[in-house]
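Protein 1 of 2
SEQ + STRUCT:
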Amino acid sequence: MPARAYVNGRYGPIDEAAVSIEDRGFQFADSLYEVVAFLGGRFLDWDKHLQRLRRGLAALFIDGAPSDAAFGLIAARLIHQSRLSDGLLYIQVSRGAARRDHPFPADVPPTLVMTVRRFDFAQRLPQLGSGVSAISLPDQRWDRCDLKTTGLLPAVLAKQEARRAGAFEALFVKAGDVTEGASTNIHMVDGAGRIVTHPLSARILPGVARDTLLAIARAAQIEV
């Protein structure tokens, strides 16, 4: 089965999916997204992803998104149609389609896009043993990195710079502090065995995997 998509009530192959060219996600990056892994047909940290999405929608004043139950039903149907057991679910909610103008349009329903693709998680396992290379770059992103918006151009440019350097990731540095990677939260282990990471703030994304990792570390009595 090809990768599957859902766009505002319609299911189909991903290469047949489309949104309006006047969608504000396209015109202004006026949109949020989440990427949820699923293994054996089961979503990982589903509730945490929805909570972060809801927080972002409230911060951007985007109203009218489906209920949590509706999100779950759409996601489950996409996975069923794709016949995949392991993969990635992408969710994007924009303010909707309207004549191009900066202020919020009135009475416009949000655009909801969801896609499902196969992903081979085993490909990451060798990296756990060998490690990956990284470069550091100035953090030039906007000041609300805690919101998972689709305005990712600084991260795109940083990833490309890493690729040119033969590296896997770019680490952002702001005012002398490592904040996070272009597409990752960053954790380090110091000489005392403590986990060191940037505290939650507007400088970094409150990563779902980050939250789970730190909870596991604290349960194992590893200092964070």
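Protein 2 of 2
SEQ + STRUCT:
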Amino acid sequence: MNPFDISKTKKACSITTKILKQLITELRKHSFETELDVYNFLKQKTKENNYKLAFKPIVVTGKNAAEIHHKANSTKLQKGFLIIDFGVKYKGYCSDCTRTFYLGKPSKKEIKLYNLVLLAQETSLNHAQPGVYAADIDLIARQILKEHYKHFVHGTGHGVGKKIHQAPSLKPRSTSILKQNQTITIEPGLYFKNKLGIRIEDTIVVKNKPIILTKLTKELIII
């Protein structure tokens, strides 16, 4: 069975971005008080559309945002970065998308950090072409984030298809070579303990000109 199916992954990504757009609308209305409120909204909207979650959504606010695999809890939404990592399944194929919003007014330093992660994400994404070593994509992101290298503590991406995490792995020691029409994620991030976290992630198709399937703005949304 083919672990990659562009049409089904594309549909999963379309559903994901639709729900995330609905979430942004509700965030602007200040409809949520806690991380769990946001988490439950994502679960509810997925169920309403008769789809399944690809994984448990990650919703993390303020200082908690430095926790990569944080479990949403009763922490109240607070000033600072809000990371939402979300995906659904469509006919057995997964999507994976992360966006980082800002609640309140960000400082110049925070905006600079966000834009640096965005630069790393977009630059590495644009190099995700057939025949390129996965480790080289990871290296591109790390070179851009080198001033904060200690705070980039996970791989730059992974394959996504029937499973939410599958080959190829975009990490420093990966020996994988990207192939035409693989669906993968590109998701660099920075995490400062007890301070903040930022991650930006798209599901894409490996091509000579990579195709982004998670069509949701990456400009910093300030709420």
